[in-house]
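Subject: Sanity check before I submit

Could someone independently write out the structure tokens for this chain? I want to compare against mine line by line before I put it in a report. The sequence has 261 residues.
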Amino acid sequence: MKTHEVFEPGDGRKIAYHNLPARGAGVNAPGVVFLGGFKSDMAGTKAIYLEDWARSTGRAFLRFDYTGHGISSGDFLDGCIGEWAQDAYDAITALTNGPQILVGSSMGGWISLLLARRMPERIAGLIGIAAAPDFTENGMWAGFSDAERAALMRDGRVEQPSEYSDDPYVITRKLIEDGRQQLVLDAPLHLPFPVRLLHGTADADVPMDWTLRLLDHATGPDIRAIFVQRADHRMSTDDDLTLLTETVEEVIRRDAAARPS
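---
Independent answer below. Compare away.
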């Protein structure tokens, strides 16, 4: 059995994905798309858990790797937020039908918001898991020392230690400069569908203040934040995963209630 398919948008990119078709009552309902984080891939715990949930409920479900991530083509160091958002846009446009509920983890939360701005007619709801909009500017660049900023501009890259790997994070000048063209918290951001923002109080990577800022900045009829005591950035414990699927189901109900009968 194939573990994945490959989608080629036509410009040399090869995007690996797994697409679960809807069945039964799910055929006429919104699908779910998982958008992973920085240097993550579509085989992570949350993506697989959501796919199992979708299979059990008949929902369509799409997970994929951005270019330079997982088993898609490209080098991670050549990528940037705008290009990964384009990967997501192309995948959703080509591989899904009708409205979708976006579930964005960390960087995937930022990409979800970019998609909400670009294709709101295709979005039935949005769930952020430790969403990290504008993190290249408000997290990386803001946290650099003067020496690191000078090295980035001079050498095109700097290295930072990673809590998740023995290899350092390499942050490129392209990532920072492109990120400034993708900011979502510096201009009006209207989200005309149910939005839920999940965040753990023990998250050491994305400050809770970022979720509060997004909650205050965005406008829309149904936006709520849920803070989970002692949950970390991954939010992948059994309780966290149960909360995630419960939240997806709530967004589905809220979307259905808001649609004309």
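---
OP: Matches mine. For the report I'm noting this point. Helices lie at 45-57, 81-95, 107-118, 135-143, 146-155, 173-179, 208-217, 238-258.
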